[in-house]
Design a protein that fits this description.
11 strands, mainly beta, seven-stranded mixed beta sheet, 121 residues
């Protein structure tokens, strides 16, 4: 019903920057929230940042001040600009969207395929 396709990721040195983007498509009536989660090696998936359709943002404490989430509602796209990257930011990053589709009466959560971000010298 809804597909999330992300781009970005890869290998970056500590202190470097990396952008991620994710675009939603499909039977979308409206997107309530989009965001990013990550799963470090051997750990559980955790929140990175979210943004509502109204532009309200929420960040994990560990990334606040270093990462910036933004969205383009017309394009159903969310961006994550990651600066001052640290080795502990190494993880698989997943795009997430809370979407009311044209097919179901209640909004549902959708996930994109993960993209690996490796911070290493």
């Amino acid at each position: 019903q809804v597909q999330l396709v992300n781009s970005g990721g890869g290998l970056v040195q500590p202190g470097g920057s990396l952008p991620l983007s994710c675009t939603a498509s499909g039977s979308i009536f409206t997107i309530l929230t989009m965001g990013w989660y990550r799963q470090p090696p051997g750990k559980q998936r955790e929140l990175v940042a979210t943004i509502t359709s109204g532009g309200t943002t929420n960040y994990a404490a560990s990334v606040k001040g270093r990462f910036t989430i933004s969205g383009d509602t017309a394009e159903n796209t969310v961006y994550l600009q990651m600066n001052s990257l640290r080795p502990e930011d190494t993880a698989v990053y997943y795009c997430n969207a809370h979407v009311l589709t044209t097919l179901t009466p209640k909004p549902e959560y959708y996930w994109g395929e993960g993209t690996l971000v490796t911070v290493s010298s």
